[in-house]
Amino acid sequence: MTSTLDTVDNLDTLNRLLGPLEMRAGWNKQEPSLWPRPRTKFKPAHWNWKSARAALDSAGRLISAEQAERRNLFLVNPCEGNYYETLRTLVSAYQMILPGEQARSHRHTPNALRLVLDVAEDCYTIVDGVELEMAPGDVLLTPGWSWHGHGNKGSKPGYWIDFLDVPMVQLLEPMFLEFHPDGLETAVSKTRDSTFVMSYAQTESRLDAAKLDARGRLVISLDHASMPTIGMDMERILAGRTTRRERTTANQIIAVVSGEGMTQVGDTRLAWRRGDVIAVPTWHDYAHTATQDTVLFCVSDRVAQEKLGLLKVECP
User: Fold this and answer.
1) What is d(CA 292, CA 261) in angstroms, rounded to the nearest whole number?
2) Which H/E stretch holds residue 161?
3) Total domains in the fold of the chain
4) Same domain, yes or no: 240 and 299
5) Per residue in 247-288, pLDDT tens?
6) Is the same domain home to 50 and 195?
7) H or E stretch including 189?
8) Pairwise CA distance, residues 208 & 254, whole Å
9) Other CB atoms within 10 Å distance of the CB of residue 234
10) CA dist 169 → 90, 109, 162, 230 (Å)
11) Is this model's pTM higher than 0.90 or not?
């Protein structure tokens, strides 16, 4: 083959001969591998909490936590060919646990966190042997390779939203999963005073003390060293305000903690209310408008992009 290659006198023939060698000429690429600005197949999207809750309630009658492993509804971006991811690097899901149920403990390399929507008393997660009681509006962290399982000793179902960097780990490929030998890990202590619990009471206090930023929001960071790839922000938008438009290379999943309004993402208008989730893909112009006082929770790959020197933000 080498002797054949070094005597080729026709470019089309050379291109054809490279195929069996698993080579492709840069001058013969079917599409460019570099482009002047970010592009993505992922679309702006909206998921309705009212519909999700109804579906989870039906699932509670039809499938047990043991059968399902986790009774959750993944928020699948409506882009072509996608069956799992919410955005390129992140996935989100609504989850529900019934009274008396336990979701067995496991651990995995992806980082995970949850925003609590509706829980009554005695709904909890166990992270590395510590029982953490849930309350509405809380953000609970389960860092990569930390044991975590859930239980509900109360009288009503518990609901929350999960966020994970599973698609990023799938892309890089160091995926590991392990199940706890005891099923649900035994808690050796119980507390809410943990670095893995960001209580909504603390969040509200910090938002009360925050000042308006350049985009017209009261915003605080919940970034945590145990979440090396995930950025977390809480922002309050007062009724009647529209934030300044922004675009960023960060992929953003935004959950509505309270309030009502809409987000304009490019030419797409997404109306939302408490419990809903929206997706803002990379490099899409967007702005929020609040028709009521609103708190939004934004989970993004901002931290990973900052560490890699890739993050870019513009207010066009």
Assistant:
1) 7
2) strand 158-164
3) 3
4) yes
5) 999 999 999 999 999 999 999 999 999 999 999 999 999 999
6) yes
7) strand 189-191
8) 20
9) 25
10) 9, 8, 16, 12
11) yes
